[in-house]
Amino acid sequence: MDALRNPFWLLAIEDTSKVWQDRFIDTFQRYMDSNYQQASDRDVGRFRDLETYMKWRRENIGMWPSIILYELDWDLPSEIYDHPLVQEICTDATDMVIIDNDIFSYNVEQARGDTDNILCVVMDEFSLDLQGALDWAGEKRQELASAFLSRLTSLPVLGEDYDRQIKGYLSAVGQAVAGNAHWSFESERYFGKAGAEIQKHRKFTLLPKKK
């Protein structure tokens, strides 16, 4: 990848393992591919069902190339990183970020006619109105949070050093979910200056459609 021949990458490879570098390249390539797919789909007006949407959005949301950076503190071996339970926990976290982000971004997206949003998908697939889709998303979000916490308590015992590493890594993954939510309200990207008020009352007024 020519893009990785820049000074930032050259500095990164000085202090990272080949295993970590390969993981980063893999997750970032998947992220870039998903964004290319999004642009292509918009050109032809493609609309996904829920299963297809989630599979695509898990790459497009950018969670995997972000949380791979947390691993720099631990440099997890493949038998830990690729452990099915670890991957399931990371997928739970990713799905929570997807739901959070799509709820937060829905208003500005609907105003510009963007339908790449889980609320649009759910409304179409289950014949729901917007409030029904929000209720569905809230219930699904709670299920994911419960699954995330439950899986954390089911991690195998791998030895003191490995246990410390994996708990630290997955703690950071969980903090990424919370951090994304806090940032979404505190920045003006989705709610303008009304973020704190919307966070408190959980209500927003739909923006008019842009012509």
TrEMBL record:
Q: Which GO terms describe its molecular function?
A: metal ion binding; terpene synthase activity
Identify the EC number(s).
4.2.3.-
- Which Pfam families does the UniProt entry name for this protein? Terpene_syn_C_2 (PF19086)
Organism from which the protein derives: Meripilus lineatus
A single GO BP annotation from the record? isoprenoid biosynthetic process
Task: Name the cofactor(s).
Answer: Mg(2+)
Q: What class of enzyme is it?
A: lyase
User: Keywords for this entry?
Assistant: Lyase, Magnesium, Metal-binding
First and last residue of the signal peptide: none
Q: What is this protein called?
A: Terpene synthase
Q: Which family does it belong to?
A: Belongs to the terpene synthase family.
